[in-house]
Design goal:
The complex is a heterodimer. By secondary structure, chain A is mainly alpha-helical. Chain A has one domain: ABC transporter involved in vitamin B12 uptake, BtuC, CATH 1.10.3470. Chain A contains 15 helices and 4 strands. In chain A, helix 8 crosses helix 9. The longest helix of chain A has 27 residues. Chain B has 21 helices and 7 strands. In chain B, the strands form 2 sheets. Chain B has a 5-stranded antiparallel beta sheet. In chain B, strands 6-7 form a two-stranded antiparallel sheet. In chain B, a hairpin with a 5-residue loop joins strand 3 and strand 4. The chains are: A mainly alpha, B alpha+beta. Chains A and B meet through helix 6, helix 7, helix 12 and helix 14 of A and helix 14, helix 19 and helix 21 of B.
Chain lengths: 362, 537
């Protein structure tokens, strides 16, 4: 069989993959091979915007994996997203070389500005693409592992866990705002020039980044879908629904939690790493607690515990955000706030729940 | 008319008194001497002027201070025509003058008719000095102390007899004490080593930097080893006091920050702690309280606004809170994560509502007079507004505690929070209790907002900056425990301020956050966990 059973039975997932495939083929054609005045032509701005939505969608999938299937409401997932972004941003910073404002071959501009004499040790290696990619996985993963190891072993759960994950991202935000940290302080990392030698603002590079985002989202989705269809996935749901019972049945609840939490953080890190070159900046604002909460909202609106819902919610809400903040900036927060309330009260199963008959209720 | 004559005599007396008042200002006995001295300024060189200033100072005449000030400001002139010294008021080619001796107004004259009596900087500093010691005999004790302070900064042996004379008649205790210190400082230059040693010992513990400087000099340079040792001991005594003062200051700042944290968290301790509802809109309720204060100040004078704003803010936010509970939260009991999301949505709506109604800019809330300035506790000067807020925090805490422990509603709230089903079985109307509890917690948040409006900018983002902190305080203290919130808030505040000198404000905050994250691993239920039979909350 070409398509494994766990995927075949997931009709919404197949639709999602098909849509992604169409986007992956259609967007490059509409963007690169149509004349700029053609009605169907997609500007570089639109492509970047779509790419951004895809990164958010991957973050939402990561949140859905821990929240929808394991019942851990993380209010700090944007921290892993931002850490991944910073790791890749550091690579991009090192690629600037002498083209910075101060023209220092080694030090990024902000370090010259702060009168630093040499590169801090934790910046070593980030001039290598492969090392940076590794760090995109390792840094968020390690943080999630250590954090999860302590938190889950001490049986911190429910709202307490939510609150300390929020404290984690808040503390990181405060830390990254400090110039002494060596990550550009308030301004963050920006003014990138090229990635692997290709100019970052080139239409071609943008398309490649877009396709990579599609592949990452599709890959992340497949990984999560596969994971939840395995026996391990059953354990996850068991932990969500009756943690103590799962423990009494002999499952190593803590280990499963740490493992999945770490995996989810890595996915968020990848999303962040793809987000930074497309948006062109990463700053401590990405750690803001509200970003993590927004990611949770995407999942809630789309329908948690569905994975596809996370993608749908992330794309729809961000599209609405781009549109409303441009057209009616006053209304955006009313709309978002109203949406939170309406979804939790009226649509506990999210938008996907509207389409689907009651089968995977929580 | 037998009474005619006394009346007439009385009238005559009145006329005389009036004449005395309306005529040239009251003549002092020493006026002749004063004008005689002043005239000499005309021909004196700077040395001569110095002597003349010293002469003026010993005259017991209230005009002397005015004249010396004018001389220092180059406003003292000699008018050739009648041959008298005058004081110029203002500048320009035509200036208004008054008589230096009597202070009588003399109209305007051309500048060319006047001869300026010049002063140099040496003379000016002498005048400043002498003016200060003139203050020694002032009727106002604070002026006398200011005069002694001048001596402390620049102990001139010539001033010692004046100080001693003052000490003999001084009645004000604080001034006496300062005089003794000043005299001890003068004794540090005494040729007799035992006097110097005693003076050094007496000066121990005095915090003024000038005295510390002199003591340090004595400890290093004095010819007599006993004096050096005494000075050394005195210095370490001073050092100790300084350190204690520093600690006291840190403690106060910490308590002050703690009181703010408690105010921000205590409403949450009710809604989250007692009811188990995560209210992410809590910060926005505080914001509403702060905006209520601002609105009240638009209508009422600032000094009266706060006593009105406190109950009003309580009412407004309590009503909003009850509306939130009835409209949203009651459908979500038992689903804390959903509650979190819904209330977060409410917080966004409230923020945007305030932004739309009041503008996104910060509003300035003024401080009433009785909350500005400083208050001295011994040598420790604390700002009045922080002290008031500390007291306010304690009052709010006490009232809330009484409300929960001593009222019918409080009893029902505790019953419902401990065992909802049993409470309902006993006839407690749990829906009503939920709404009122949430209203109570929200109202307390509004009251906290009134206090916060005195410390920070009142803007749409006011609430956001406190929400993480206040959750931390509640969780650290132990959910469902008001005392825990109190202890947690105070200790976190003090810990923050103790760390700050070493790490800086931001890092101190990060350290505290990391500590809290670790602490929750160790004790997931906080400092004072609620005891009960429930296996799982």
């Amino acid at each position: 069989m070409l398509i494994p059973r766990w995927l075949l039975s997931d009709r919404a997932g197949l639709v999602l993959l098909a849509v992604l495939a169409i986007l992956g083929i259609g967007v490059p054609i509409l963007s690169l091979w149509t004349p700029p005045d053609h009605p169907l032509h997609l500007s570089a701005y639109t492509v970047t915007l779509l790419g951004k939505y895809l990164c958010y969608a991957l973050l939402a999938v990561a949140v859905d994996l821990v929240w929808g299937y394991m019942g851990i409401l993380s209010l700090g997932h944007a921290a892993f997203f931002a850490l991944g972004g910073y790791c890749f941003g550091m690579y991009l910073m090192r690629q600037i070389g002498t083209r910075g404002v101060y023209g220092d071959p080694v030090l990024p501009d902000f370090m010259v500005f702060l009168n630093w004499k040499e590169l801090p040790w934790y910046w070593y290696g980030f001039d290598h693409f492969s090392f940076a990619l590794l760090m995109v996985l390792v840094v968020p993963g390690l943080l999630a592992f250590v954090f999860g190891w302590f938190a889950f072993r001490s049986r911190v759960s429910g709202v307490y866990l939510s609150i300390i994950t929020q404290a984690l991202t808040y503390a990181l935000m405060l830390a990254f705002f400090r110039n002494e940290m060596g990550f550009g302080g308030n301004n963050g990392l920006t003014d990138f020039k090229d990635v692997l030698g290709y100019p970052i603002h080139d239409d071609g590079t943008r398309i490649v980044l877009f396709i990579l985002s599609i592949l990452a989202l599709a890959g992340g989705y497949l990984l999560c879908r596969w994971l939840v269809s395995t026996r391990m996935g059953r354990v996850l749901v068991a932990i969500r629904d009756a943690e103590d019972r799962a423990r009494f049945l002999g499952y190593r609840v803590e280990q499963v939690k740490v493992l999945v939490f770490t995996l989810s953080a890595m996915l968020a890190g990848i999303a962040g790493a793809l987000y930074v070159p497309q948006v062109g900046i990463i700053n401590p604002g990405e750690f803001a607690p509200i970003n993590s909460i927004e990611a949770v909202i995407w999942v809630a609106v789309g329908g948690r515990g569905t994975l596809v819902g996370a993608v749908v919610g992330a794309v729809l809400i961000n599209y609405a955000k781009s549109w409303l903040t441009g057209a009616l900036p006053e209304v955006w927060l009313f709309a978002l706030g109203g949406l939170f309330v309406a979804v939790t009260l009226l649509l506990p199963r999210g938008l996907i729940g509207l389409l689907r008959p009651r089968e995977t209720t929580t | 008319m037998p009474s005619c004559i006394p009346v007439r005599a009385w009238l005559a007396a009145c006329m005389l008194a009036l004449a005395a008042l309306c005529g040239s200002p009251a003549a002092y006995a020493g006026d002749d001497e004063l004008s005689a001295t002043l005239i000499q300024f005309r021909d004196a060189d700077f040395d001569g002027k110095t002597e003349l200033v010293e002469k003026l100072v010993v005259l017991d005449n209230p005009r002397v201070a005015v004249i010396l000030n004018a001389l220092s400001d180059s406003r003292l002139y000699f008018q050739e025509d009648p041959g008298r010294v005058v004081i110029g008021l203002g500048d320009g080619s035509e200036i208004t003058i008054e008589d230096a001796v009597t202070g009588a107004a003399l109209g305007q004259v051309g500048k060319r008719d006047l001869d300026r009596i010049t002063a140099n900087n040496r003379l000016r500093s002498l005048i400043e000095d002498r003016l200060a010691s003139l203050g020694l005999s002032s009727a106002d004790p604070s002026q006398r102390r200011a005069a002694i302070d001048v001596f402390l900064r620049n102990p001139d042996p010539a001033g010692v007899p004046r100080l001693q004379a003052r000490l003999a008649v001084e009645t004000d205790a604080k001034t006496r004490q300062l005089l003794t210190v000043a005299l001890a400082l003068a004794d540090l230059a005494n040729p007799d080593a035992t006097v110097r040693a005693k003076a050094a010992t007496d000066l121990g513990g005095q915090l003024q930097p000038e005295i510390r400087g002199r003591l340090a000099k004595a400890a290093a340079e004095d010819s007599d080893p006993a004096v050096r040792e005494a000075a050394q001991r005195a210095l370490s005594h001073t050092q100790f006091r300084l350190q204690m003062l520093g600690w006291a200051e840190t403690l106060f700042f910490g308590l002050s920050l703690g009181s703010v944290l408690i105010l921000a968290a205590i409403g949450l301790a009710v809604t989250f702690g007692v009811m188990g509802v995560i209210n992410m809109a809590h910060g926005e309720l505080m914001m509403l309280g702060a905006y209520t204060t601002w609105l009240v100040q638009q209508w009422l004078p600032v000094n009266w606004s706060l006593p009105v704003a406190v109950p009003l803010a309580f009412l407004v936010t309590a009503l909003v809170g009850i509306a939130i509970e009835r409209g949203v939260i009651r459908f979500l009991y038992g689903r804390p994560l959903e509650t979190l999301l819904a209330t977060f949505g409410i917080s966004l709506i409230l923020q945007q509502a305030v932004r739309t109604i009041f503008s996104p800019l910060n509003r300035s809330v003024s401080a009433p007079d009785w909350m500005s300035g400083t208050f001295a506790i011994g040598p420790l000067e604390v700002t009045m507004n922080r002290l008031v807020i500390l007291g306010f925090c304690i009052a709010v805490f006490a009232l809330l505690w009484l409300a929960l422990q001593r009222t019918r509603l409080g009893l029902e709230v505790r019953a419902v929070s401990q065992n909802r089903a049993m409470a309902r079985a006993m006839g407690v109307p749990s829906a009503r209790v939920d709404a009122l509890t949430f209203g109570l917690g929200s109202g307390v948040a509004g009251v906290a907002g009134v206090a916060l409006s005195q410390l920070t900018n009142v803007g749409p983002n006011l609430g956001q900056s406190y929400i993480v902190d206040s959750f931390m305080v509640v969780v650290f203290g132990g959910v469902g425990n008001l005392w825990g919130t109190l202890v947690a808030g105070l200790s976190l505040g003090v810990a923050n301020k103790v760390l700050e000198p070493w790490t800086g404000a931001v890092l101190a905050k990060i350290v505290v956050l990391v500590f809290l994250i670790l602490f929750i691993q160790k004790r997931p239920r906080g400092l004072f966990p609620q005891r009960g039979r429930a296996a799982e909350v």
